[in-house]
Amino acid sequence: MKAAGITSPGLIRDNNEDRYYIHQEKGLLIVADGMGGHASGEEASKLAVQTVLEHLGDFADQPEEKIRAAITAANAAIIAQADFHPAMAGMGTTFTLVAVLPGNLVIGHIGDSMAFLIDSDGILPITSDHSVSGQLLAMGEITLAEAACHPQRHVLTRALGINATADIEIKRQPWRKGQKLLLCSDGLTDVLPLPDICQVVEGSGTIEDKLSRLLSMVLEKGAPDNVTIILAQL
Predict the structure, then answer these.
(1) Can you give 48-70 as a three-state secondary structure string?
(2) β-pairing verdict for 180-184 and 114-119
(3) pTM of the entire structure?
(4) Domain 2-125+156-233 adopts which CATH fold?
(5) For residue 148, how many other CB atoms are within 10 A of its CB?
(6) Mean pLDDT: which of 80-89, 129-138, 204-213 is highest?
(7) Which residues have CB under 8 Å from 171's CB, separation 6+?
């Protein structure tokens, strides 16, 4: 696996509450999108990534259990930090982790940051959108196009730091050599339609070229939020 990432505060926000992590040798990719005032969102995403890395260790054996335990520890750490610092009350973060194992991706996910597999057949979401609009979409009550502009698309139904018990989505997803894996915060998917993202990823250029192109396209459209993208060649 070859992977790279890029992040930007965008054109409206003063600070960047997103955080990402890549370990190519281990095949580990993480995106977290923090939330909360007084820089607490930035602290939440940073703390979540740090805590997961401290707890995860070698995940080749029993990866689902280890990933769930590590993300659960991150949830507890964020809640403890908010309890200790009242100014950080309400801090939280999305968290999307993908472990690349032979033949399968193991995904640990909560929130509305997303992961996709991309190839010549198109772009396949491999995580659920844990927002009000995502829930309505999953229930078949709205279409994908309606979800993209739904007034409650940013209202999360799940995130780290919100409840003592985090409802973490853990799943396996088969992958094939030659596919691309993309993780991102909603600063990308809120601005660029999925076909446009797919077209860039399937186009010419290096991974770094494609990341720069995607970020430039978001900035050209106003970049109202922090944006973070990881792209991996499987």
Answers:
(1) HHHHHHHHHCCCCCCHHHHHHHH
(2) antiparallel
(3) 0.95
(4) Phosphatase 2c; domain 1 (3.60.40)
(5) 15
(6) 204-213
(7) 106, 107, 109, 126
